[in-house]
Amino acid sequence: MISSSTSSAPSSSTSPLPPSITKALVHYASSSNSTTKSMSFSEINAITTTLHLTPNPNFLIFGLTQESLLWSALNNNGRTVFIDENEYIISKFEQSNPGIEAYDVQFTSKVSEYPKLLSHAKEESKRDCKPVQNLLFSECKLGINDMPNHIYQVSWDVILVDGPRGYFPAAPGRMSAIFTAAVLARSKKVGKTHVFVHDFWREVEKIFSYEFLCEENLVNNVDQLRHFVIKSETENGESFEFCKSSSPSKIV
Fold first, then answer.
1. Which UniProt keywords apply (predicted)?
2. Per the confidence metrics, is the pTM higher than 0.70?
3. How many structural domains are present in the chain?
4. Angle at the Cα of 222 (from 55 to 103), degrees rounded to 5?
5. Per-residue b/e over 177-208, b at no fewer than 16 CB within 10 Å?
6. Angle between helices 114-123 and 175-187 (to 10 degrees)
7. What CATH number is associated with residue 203?
8. What pLDDT digit, counting tens, does each position of 143-162 carry?
């Protein structure tokens, strides 16, 4: 499913809040005591602070969550794109929230398969699973290559990995989302990308973040959220290593 629009900023500081912000804040306030709430105030604040560092940021989010409307509203002057595994949920979300840009992707992996997928990526680090590549044509088993073509051309300022599901062995897991975020960040033409990974208490999130986002790029940790800053590598020639210092498959 595809839907997109361009949000406009308020004309002055005294103008009413845009409807998207009003709706999001009301939604979030009304559900703040819900057991399905996935992020703490500190985690949300950490991401919001980073969003505000860049004028009109490009914000890519893996996963539709309790905070989705909030992210879209907070990035009112930038571009926010959601990627989720569930076509039906994407469709319903777009219908209820005109102007949202969201796409469904087929995740064929399973959490239980992560050791095999990690081994494959390491073996193919100089070929299909390179840190810098055009993912649209990637043959790496961890690379997401079925997003709309234009998504690969965007220089993403902030990426949040908060999906797909990863809390049981048969779930798709976030292996591909983390790997794809790492490659998108390193393959952008210039600059750096802030990558956030949520639910860091889980094994997959820890192992794949340290393997592809790298401990040396970790700049902050808040509750179960980790914040990595990845620099573009396209100006420094071809690289076959994600991390300068070796801390493979570290679990802490």
1. Membrane, Transmembrane, Transmembrane helix
2. yes
3. 1
4. 55
5. bbbbbbbbbbbbeeeebbbbbbbbebebbbbb
6. 30
7. 3.40.50.150
8. 999 999 999 999 999 999 99
